[in-house]
Amino acid sequence: MDKTIFITGGTSGFGAAIARKFAAADWKVVATGRRAERLQPLVEEFGADRIHAAVFDIRDADAMSQAIAALPEKFRGIDALVNNAGLALGTAPAQRADLAQWRQMIDTNVTALAALTYALLPTLIERKGAIVNISSIAATYPYTGGNVYGATKAFVTQFSLGLRSDLHGTGVRVTSIEPGLAETEFTLVRTSGDRSASDKLYEGAQPIVAEDIADAVHWVATLPPHLNVNRLEVMPVSQSFAGFQIHRD
Ligand code: NDP
Ligand code: 8X3
């Protein structure tokens, strides 16, 4: 196998599982994230010929350009891009939210994702590659306190569909994967490290696990080249829909 995948947010959760899935399937993997100490074990396990760790803050445009420019020769031909790095911060309603947290979510989930996609499009087009964007059910279903997080994911979904149109005829595939409740470090990050809140959310719910999403990413990225999954919404069986809220005077 002489294919290379570039995965953002490879230090944790979905991204770490996706990196392991593709490395085990003999892909070369570029795994990114801010925490170098989380990427090093992956390099040690699979070898530096299989995994390249690119440590940078995805919001830092210069650092992103430098990381791409510094890719070793054998990792430069990117066949698949997984835009996975992202986060939710806070659960307060808009009127009590923290504007700095809103900016961080937009910078990470929207601006950085668009900039990285733009930077890697030439090689993805040249190699008739695949783009897999990790959106969320929050893109489609609003919930109290989801405000800017849900809006950033609506961008991810719509950007994916727009890319499909723009890339018409290039052979590049684009997929928006939209997971529901999944146990990763997501809630720990969202609650600024509240372990009991995170444990309570997932307890007894049999949530999605990171390997489930890694399997989904692998499936959409390795389909026969004439097929494109546009959107893939995935929930645990334990999660479904509830009604609208009504305020009464
Ligand atoms: P984790 O918190 O476990 O992983 C998030 C990843 O994003 C980490 O590797 C982190 O790396 C990276 N990241 C965050 N900010 C930055 C940054 N500024 N620069 C570089 N990397 C960054 O959560 P998940 O695995 O759950 O999240 C992955 C994606 O899945 C996100 O886009 C999330 O919105 C989405 N998602 C999650 C769901 C869930 O319920 N868990 C459901 C639906 C979608 P580091 O901190 O080392 O920089
Ligand atoms: C994560 C899923 O429902 O917590 O994107 O927003 S949700």
Automatic annotation (TrEMBL):
Stretches assigned to the Ketoreductase domain: 3-184
Domain of life: Bacteria
Keyword list, A-Z: Oxidoreductase
SMART domains: PKS_KR
An MF annotation (GO) of this entry: oxidoreductase activity, acting on the CH-OH group of donors, NAD or NADP as acceptor
InterPro entries with a match to the protein in the record: KR_dom, NAD(P)-bd_dom_sf, Sc_DH/Rdtase_CS, SDR_fam
Membrane-spanning parts: none
Family note: Belongs to the short-chain dehydrogenases/reductases (SDR) family.
Entry protein name: SDR family NAD(P)-dependent oxidoreductase
